[in-house]
Design goal:
Jelly Rolls; 7-stranded antiparallel beta sheet; 13 strands; 280 residues; 4 helices; single chain; alpha+beta
Length: 280
C-alpha cells in the first residue's frame, strides 16, 4: 500500500463533536445530519479516492444504469485497503469517534466503505430498502455515514421513514438495477411493502446536504433515493459503515454484500478479523 501526503493541519481538523440533540435524533428517527462536521481537507482526500476508484475499480464495482459499465449510476466498495485516501479518512478523521457517540458504543469497528456516484441526468432511482439484510452482520449498534462531495438538493436527496429502524421487521434485499427482491419472503424476512402507497402513514424525512455535511443513519432505517434528472453536477458520495460493541457475524439466505469470504468467522460470533479493524 502506497503512501500519501497529508493535507495541511488546518484543513483536516477532526470531525466536529456530536451533540446530545443529534444523538437523540439518531436514536429516535434512525437518521440525523451532522451539519458542516467534516473539514475541506478530508473531502479533498475522499474526492481523490473516488477518482482513483473510478479509474481502477475493484472486482465488486458495478454500474446500476448499465451493468458492466462504470458510468451513469455506479458503485464500488471494500477498497479501503488499496485506496490510501479512504484509509486515512477511516483512521484519522474523527469519523469513528462520532460513530461511537451516535451508537452509544465503547468500541468502533470499521465495516467497509461504499462509493456511490450518480452522474448528471441519471434516471435510475434507488428502491426502498434497509441495509442490514444485505450485510453479514447483526446487532443494533451501527451507523452508516453518507458523505456527499457535491451539493445534493433536497428533491434528489435520500428519503427516510423516521423510526423504521425500531419496527422489529427485516426486509428482503432488492437489486438496485431491477428493483427485484433477492428471494421470496421467508426465514424471518418479508418483502418490502409498497411504501410509496402508504407514505401518508409515516413521517418521511428528506434532507438537502452540502459538502461537509455527514448524513448518518441506522442500518435498519428504510430509505430510497430518486435519480438526478435536472442536476448539472455529479452526485458523488462515499459512505463509511461502522459497527459497535454488539456486532456479530451473520449469514443470510443470499450472498451477503459485500461478499466477504467467511474465513474463520462464525455466525453469532465477533467480527474479529483484519478486514474489520477496531478504530476506537
Amino acid at each position: 500500500m502506497g503512501g500519501h501526503t497529508r493535507q495541511p493541519v488546518d484543513s483536516v481538523r477532526d470531525m466536529a463533536e456530536v451533540t446530545a440533540a443529534q444523538r437523540a435524533d439518531f436514536t429516535r428517527d434512525g437518521v440525523v445530519v451532522l451539519r458542516q462536521a467534516l473539514a475541506p481537507g478530508w473531502l479533498e482526500l475522499l474526492a481523490r479516492g473516488v477518482e482513483r476508484d473510478h479509474d481502477h475499480p475493484s472486482a465488486w464495482a458495478f454500474g446500476f444504469s448499465e451493468p458492466g459499465r462504470i458510468d451513469g449510476f455506479w458503485s464500488d466498495y471494500g477498497t479501503w485497503q488499496e485506496v490510501d485516501e479512504f484509509r486515512e479518512v477511516v483512521f484519522d478523521s474523527g469519523l469513528a469517534s462520532a460513530a461511537a457517540s451516535l451508537m452509544g458504543s465503547r468500541t468502533v469497528r470499521f465495516f467497509h466503505e461504499h462509493v456511490l456516484v450518480k452522474e448528471p441526468g441519471t434516471t435510475q432511482r434507488t428502491p426502498w430498502h434497509h441495509d442490514q439484510p444485505y450485510y453479514c452482520v447483526d446487532g443494533d449498534q451501527n451507523v452508516s455515514m453518507w458523505i456527499p462531495l457535491d451539493p445534493v438538493p433536497e428533491e434528489v436527496g435520500l428519503r427516510f421513514i423516521a423510526g423504521s429502524h425500531r419496527w422489529g421487521r427485516r426486509f428482503v434485499p432488492r437489486t438496485f438495477a431491477e428493483h427485484a427482491p433477492y428471494t421470496a419472503a421467508g426465514s424471518g424476512f418479508e418483502l418490502v411493502p409498497d411504501l410509496d402507497a402508504e407514505l401518508d402513514r409515516h413521517r418521511v424525512l428528506q434532507f438537502r446536504t452540502d459538502p461537509g455535511d455527514v448524513l448518518c443513519f441506522h442500518f435498519r432505517t428504510l430509505h430510497d433515493a430518486p435519480g438526478t434528472e435536472g442536476l448539472t453536477n455529479r452526485r458523488r458520495v462515499v459512505s463509511f459503515r461502522w459497527l459497535g460493541d454488539d456486532a456479530t457475524f451473520a449469514l443470510r439466505p443470499w450472498l451477503h454484500s459485500p461478499p466477504f469470504e467467511t474465513r474463520t468467522l462464525q455466525p453469532g460470533g465477533p467480527l474479529d478479523d483484519d478486514r474489520f479493524p477496531l478504530v476506537v
